[in-house]
Amino acid sequence: MKRLFILFICLFFSIHIYCQENNCLSITKSKHQEQLQIAIEKINHGINSKYVESQKIYFSEATDILRSLNDKVEYPIVNYYLALTYIYKPDNNFTLAEQYLKKVIDACPDEIPEAYFHLGKLAYTTNQKCDAINYFKKFLTYQGDFDTLFTEAKMLMKWSEEICELINNPVPFNPKIVKGISSQLDDYLVSLSPDNEIAYYTRKTKDYQISGYKSEPAFQEKFYYSYRIADNVFDNGKEMPYPFNRNENEGGATITGNNKELIYTVCKMVTSPRQYYNCDLYSSKNIKGYWTDIVPLERVNRPDTWESMPSVTADGKELYFVSNRPGGVGGYDIYKSFKDENGEWSEPINVGEPINTPGDEKSPFIHTDTRTLYFSSNGHPGMGGYDIYYVKLNDNNEKPEVKNIGYPINTENDEMGFIVSIDGKYGYFSSNNIKNESIGGMDFYYFPLYNEAKPEEVILIKGNLKSDDTTKPIKATVQIKSMESKHITFIPVDEDGDYVASLLKNEDYLLTIKGEDIVYQSTYVAAKDSITAPVIKLEMEVQPIEVGKHYRLHNIYFAFNSADILANSQKVLDEFIVFLNDHPTLQIGIEGHTDNVGSDEFNLILSENRAKAVYNYLVNNGIDANRLQYKGFGESSPIATNDTEEGRAMNRRTEFVILKD
User: Fold this and answer.
1) Is 165 helix (H, G, I), strand (E, B) or coil?
2) How much is the average pLDDT of 180-208?
3) Contact status, residue 402 vs residue 389, Cβ threshold 8 Å
4) How many CA atoms lie within 13 A of 486 on its CB side?
C-alpha cells in the first residue's frame, strides 16, 4: 500500500510556509512552529530511510510530537501531518489517516488541496473507488504547483471511474463447486485438457517429515489428476504416477490437445553454487500410455529466475508462462515461447504492454481458440489484489485491449488460476472465499461465463490415421483447408497416427491426407453447423495407390433423387482434382451406387447420372476426359444392410477405382 503514495519532501515545507500566512492554518506560538518543523523533518527521514526499524522510530517520534501539539491546541495543519504519518509509517493506519484528513477539510476546506489528493488515494487503496472520484475531481480544481500530483490524480481518477463502472454494472456470477476435484485440503492451479476430459491440479497434502526423533506433520504440494464423469463432475483423483511427484513441490500443469505432452512446474531448493528456492518448467511425453522422464525446458528456464504457471496452445506450438527475469516490464511478467520444427522451444519473448505492467502478471491461460488470453494482474485498474483480465490477440501486431472480467467475479481479494471450457460455456477458478459452497480450504468452482468474456467458438479435431500395414509408421500429414478463406495449414501426424487441430467455428473445413503414394482421402467438417460438438473425433484410413482397387469419395452428396452435386461436395471434388493433377498418369473410373429404395431401374439410372455428373465436373475443371470413365451400379453392390437408415446411407456412395497408374 505504501508505494501507492507519492509525496515529495518539498511538499511539507511549502505547506508550512504557506500556512503562516493563513489564519485557518496559522500556528500562533513560535515554539509550536518549531515543534512542527521537527516533526516534519522526522517524517522526511522516515520516508527516505531504507530500513523498517529506522522508519518506525522516525514516524513514532513524529507522531508523539504532533499528538503533543494537538493536546495543547488542535491545529488543522498538525492534523494534516498526523494523517501523513499514519499513511507512511510501516504499520500504517488508513482509518486514522482518513479521520485526520477529514478534520483538515472540515476546518480549512480550501487551504490544503493535497488533503483531497490523499483522501482520494486512501479511498482508492481501501476499495472505495467510487468515493475516490469525487476527491480527485475536487483536487484537480485547484491552482498550484501540483504537476506531478495532478498527473497521478488524473490516472487514479480514470482507474476509479473504470472500477466504479464495474461495480455499478455487475456481471452474472453464480459459482458452484466442481465435485470430485475439490476436497477438504487446498486444491488449486487447476488446468483442463483441451478436450476437457482430464483435470490436472495441485493439492496441498499433509505428509510427515522426520525431525530428530519425531515425525512431524508438514504440507507438500503434490500433482494430481481427475477424469471427467459428467458435466463439471470429476472422479476423486489420484496422484500423478511416476515420474511425477518426486520433488518438493509440483503442479501448475498444461497439456497439449492430443493429451501427449505435459508441461508443468517443479519447485525445489537449489544448493549449488548458492542455496535458494527456485521454480522451473519441465515436460513429459505420453508414449503408449506411459509418461517419459521429465526434462527441463532448456531455453525457457534460467538458473537464477523463477519460471512457472505454463499454458500451452492446443497444437503444442506456443507456450505462455510467468517469469521474474530481468529486463521485463514489471516484477512477474508473462512470456511466450515458440516450438520450432525440431521440437525445441525458442528463447522466450516478453508479451509486452499493455498485457504486462510495472506490477505483476500471473496465471496466463490461452484458450483453445489460440486468440483469447486470460490472466491475473495487480498492475491494471482493478478491484484490489490480483484481478482477472482478458485480451483478444490478433495477427496484425495491433496492441490488444485489456479488459477486466468484471465484478463480482473480481473482488478485493486475489483472483488467480482462471480457465475456460473449450466451448466457452463455463469459467473455472480456485478460491477459499465462496463460503456457502466450500468443502474446505481452496476449492475449485465453475460458473456460466457471460457472452462478452467468452472466447471465439472453436472445434477441436482429435484425429487418427489408420493403416492396414501396422509394421511401418505412417508417413503422412493432414491438410486442413478453410472453405471460405481457402487458407491451408498442414498438421503433423505422430508415430501413433494421431493428430490434433483447433479450428475456429466460423468456417467449414476439408481435411485431406497428404503423403507420397497415398490415395485421395478426405473428410468435410461442417464446423459452422450450430449443433457441431466442440470436440470431434475423426478416423481416416491411409491407403496406397493400387491398380484395380476401389476407394470411396467421402462427402459427395446430391439433391434428393437428382444428379445435381451439392455445393459443399463440389469443394470436395475440387481437392480431388488437385490429387489427380498431382498424379497425372492415373486413370480412374467413377462409380455410382444407391440404396434399395425405389425400383431397380430407377436406381440404376440415378447412379449412372450421378457418376456422370462427377465425371463432367472433373472434365469441366481441367481433367483430361481420356483419363476418366464412369458407370452406375444402382443397388447391386451394397456394402451394408439396407434394413436400417445407417446402412442405406453407407450404400448411397460415390467411389473411384484406379484403372491405370
Assistant:
1) helix
2) 89
3) yes
4) 3
- Give the model confidence (pLDDT) of 485-521 as tens digits: 999 999 999 988 999 999 999 899 999 999 999 999 9
* Residue 150, phi then psi, degrees to nearest 5: -60, -45
Q: Tally the C-alpha atoms within 13 A of residue 116's C-alpha that lie toward its C-beta.
A: 22
- What cell numbers appear for 517 in the block? 503414394
Look at residue 55 and give its three-state secondary structure. Answer: helix
Dihedral sign from CA coordinates of 171, 174, 177, 178: negative
- In order of start, what are the domains of the chain with their CATH numbers? 2-168 (1.25.40.10), 186-453 (2.120.10.30), 457-544 (2.60.40.10), 548-661 (3.30.1330.60)
Given pLDDT bands bounded at 50, 70 and 90, which one contains residue 378? very high
Q: Is the pLDDT of residue 629 over 70?
A: yes
Residue 585 has pLDDT above 50, yes or no: yes
User: For cell 531504507, what's the residue?
Assistant: 50
Convert the pLDDT of each residue in 405-441 to its tens digit.
999 999 988 999 999 999 999 999 999 888 777 888 8
What integer pLDDT is reported at residue 284 of this predicted model?
97
User: For residue 162, how many C-alpha atoms fall within 13 Å in the half-sphere facing its CB?
Assistant: 15
pLDDT at 22 over 70: no
Give 351-357 contacts, CB < 8 A, sequence gap 24+: 351/320, 353/329, 353/399, 354/399, 354/400, 354/401, 354/402, 355/391, 355/400, 355/402, 356/328, 356/329, 356/330, 357/329, 357/330
Retrieve residue 524's grid coordinates: 468435410
- The residue type of 324 is N
| Cα atoms found within 13 Å of the Cα of residue 82, Cβ hemisphere only | 25
Q: How far apart are CA 608 and CA 563, in angstroms?
A: 9
Contacts of residue 305, Cβ cutoff 8 Å, sequence gap at least 6: 323, 324, 325, 326
